[in-house]
Amino acid sequence: MASALVTTPIAVARAFSPGHVTGFFEVPGQQTNPLHKGSKGAGFSIDAGISTAVHLYEGKGSKILINGKAAKARETEVSQWVVDQYLRDESYFAKVDHDVGIPVGFGLGSSGAAALSTSYALNAALGSKLSATEAAQLAHRAEIACRTGLGTVIAEYSGGFELRRTAGAPGIGTIDSIPLANYKAVILCMAPISTRAFLANRMDEINGLGGKMLARLSESRDVNEFLEMSFQFAQTLGLTEGRCRAPLEALRAAGIPASVALFGQTVFTLVPEERAVKAAGALKGFGGTVLVCNIGTGARVLKDR
């Protein structure tokens, strides 16, 4: 049971992780060490994401909130895994509050962002003196343990438009960043898909195709080729049909290549800033939520407000 909170916390820290969209990926041969597990592929971070505040009090236990409200255990299992690792040898009560600025379950990397921002904030609040890379590795382990993601944490740790060349946690996997100045991400979130269920059922279709695409994109380093290959990848998995079909066609009719985020009924594109209004306009009328975001930088501890 959690201890009663005193009025004044012993320590407070805040951290932010960007959301992330994966266009295509593959999972290399199985590794036993969770730090070496993960995926290769390509995607981009956005400047919307999750900010996490940690308040430490005397006592034992933890409480996790989402936007200031108590959350169900299944909604916070990745964050709880991180909290349990930090507090297992500590005598503190931790109140962890996620300020969630992206739709959850729509392929925008929310579980990785929650794990990463929680790890950064707890590391700072406790004065654990882990490096940023070590704190991110703990978040990666949380995603692997909870089976909610494979390559999201290293991408959100790095930020930007990235190629994940080798699998693994930050400090082990390798990232190649591609400059993408003056671009906007335009995203339509319509319905969630369970990453856990998809990873369990469709891995044979994913492996091979993603690796070939990564090799091609490593040569061209072209954003439009990324979008086209992402579309081919999603199409192979049947994700471009159903509810995503009409908004994809609307963007293509406007001369804008687009694809579906992995994993969600979420249509996305990357366009120069001057075309963002046109892209967002093409996505109106399909329901859901339209986001227009900048390309995001990597996760970080926030200074006290």
Give a quick account of the main beta sheet: strands, pairing sense, barrel closure: 8 strands, mixed
| Percentage of residues in helical conformation | 25-40%
Q: How many β-strand stretches?
A: 12
The percent range for strand residues is 25-35%
- Under the CATH scheme, the architecture is 2-Layer Sandwich
Task: Give the H and E element order.
Answer: EEEEHEHHHEEEHHHHHEEHEE
Low-confidence stretches: none
CATH class categorisation:
Alpha Beta
What is the third-level CATH name, the topology? Ribosomal Protein S5, domain 2
- Structural class by helix and strand composition: alpha+beta
**Ends distance:** 31 Å
Rg (C-alpha, Å): 19 Å
How many domains is the backbone divided into? 1
Total helical segments: 10
Shape: globular
How confident is the prediction overall: mean pLDDT? 92
What's this model, at a glance?
With about 300 residues, this protein is α+β, with helices and mostly antiparallel strands. It has helices spanning about 75-85, 110-125, 130-145, 150-160, 195-200, 205, 210-220, 225-235, 245-255, 275-280; strands at about 10-25, 40-60, 60-65, 70, 90-100, 160-165, 175-180, 185-190, 260, 265-270, 290-295, 300. Strands 1, 2, 3, 4, 5, 6, 7 and 12 form an 8-stranded mixed beta sheet that branches. It has a 4-stranded antiparallel beta sheet with strand order 9-10-8-11.
